[in-house]
Amino acid sequence: AQRVTQPEKLLSVFKGAPVELKCNYSYSGSPELFWYVQYSRQRLQLLLRHISRESIKGFTADLNKGETSFHLKKPFAQEEDSAMYYCALKYNFNKFYFGSGTKLNVKP
Amino acid sequence: DTAVSQTPKYLVTQMGNDKSIKCEQNLGHDTMYWYKQDSKKFLKIMFSYNNKELIINETVPNRFSPKSPDKAHLNLHINSLELGDSAVYFCASSQRHSNTEAFFGQGTRLTVV
């Protein structure tokens, strides 16, 4: 069965510190992975997808099939990065499974 | 132009009432979803429709009934509301292609008193 695990419910870092939000997945097929961000009381919005290999707002994520991971990283956290972050797995073309989310708190 | 829109944004109602939440998308997507986000921010799939056909129906009380009149709309009707139904409900849509993401509505904050 497909699964997405985000082991940290809350991650607190100081401004300027590096941040890594962990995501591990379980899926027998070829995974399509995404990171979504939800700022306070707003809708979820796409942050980045693994296929694009892009950097958005300084965040990057690399798919590691050997470790079945898709960790989200940023070298220098900013206060405006404080939000909920969800890792999501798309499977069977149009089904999405979301992890339980990690709340990132960037302290001044 | 809002891509995925839900109404109402806020809904406060008493236990035992029946209520509906509406969702519309103007992206031409063929798949729509309902997710429930609880107080701990856990996001759980409830239903998914593809071209008006139900494809995901998770373990949800049968008091919840989705209705898709056409592929641009997916409404959620809830009968006999309970305190535990209080949550934020998100509608989303996506296209059935590889590496395309889901787009979310702004959410409906349901409070049952």
Short description, anyone?
The complex is a heterodimer of chains A (108) and B (113). Chain A contains no helices and eleven strands.
Reconstruct the topology from this structure.
The complex is a heterodimer of chains A (108) and B (113).
Chain A: E1 3-5, E2 10-14, E3 19-21, E4 24-26, E5 32-38, E6 45-49, E7 60-61, E8 72-74, E9 83-91, E10 95-98, E11 102-107
Parallel strand pairs in A: 2-11
Antiparallel strand pairs in A: 1-4, 3-8, 5-6, 5-9, 7-8, 9-10, 9-11
Chain B: E1 4-7, E2 10-13, E3 19-25, E4 31-37, E5 43-50, E6 53-57, E7 64-70, E8 73-78, E9 87-94, E10 103-104, E11 108-112
Parallel strand pairs in B: 2-11
Antiparallel strand pairs in B: 1-3, 3-8, 4-5, 4-9, 5-6, 7-8, 9-10, 9-11
Report on this model:
With 108 residues, chain A is mostly beta strands. Helix content of chain A is 0%, strand content 46%. Chain A has no helices and 11 strands. Chain A has strands at 3-5, 10-14, 19-21, 24-26, 32-38, 45-49, 60-61, 72-74, 83-91, 95-98, 102-107. In chain A, strands 2, 5, 6, 9, 10 and 11 form a 6-stranded mixed β-sheet that branches. The radius of gyration of chain A is 13 Å and the shape is globular. By secondary structure, chain B is an all-beta fold. Chain B has no helices and 11 strands. In chain B, a hairpin with a 2-residue loop joins strand 7 and strand 8 (73-78). The radius of gyration of chain B is 13 Å and the shape is globular. In chain B, 32% of the residues are buried. The model of chain B has no long low-confidence stretch (mean pLDDT 92). Chain A binds chain B through residues 9, 32, 34, 38, 42-46, 49, 51, 84, 86, 88, 90, 93-98, 100-101, 103, and chain B through 30-31, 33, 35, 40-45, 48, 50, 55-56, 90, 92, 94-99, 101-107.
Keywords:
heterodimer, A: 108 residues, mainly beta, three-stranded antiparallel sheet, B: 113 residues, seven-stranded mixed sheet, four-stranded antiparallel sheet, globular
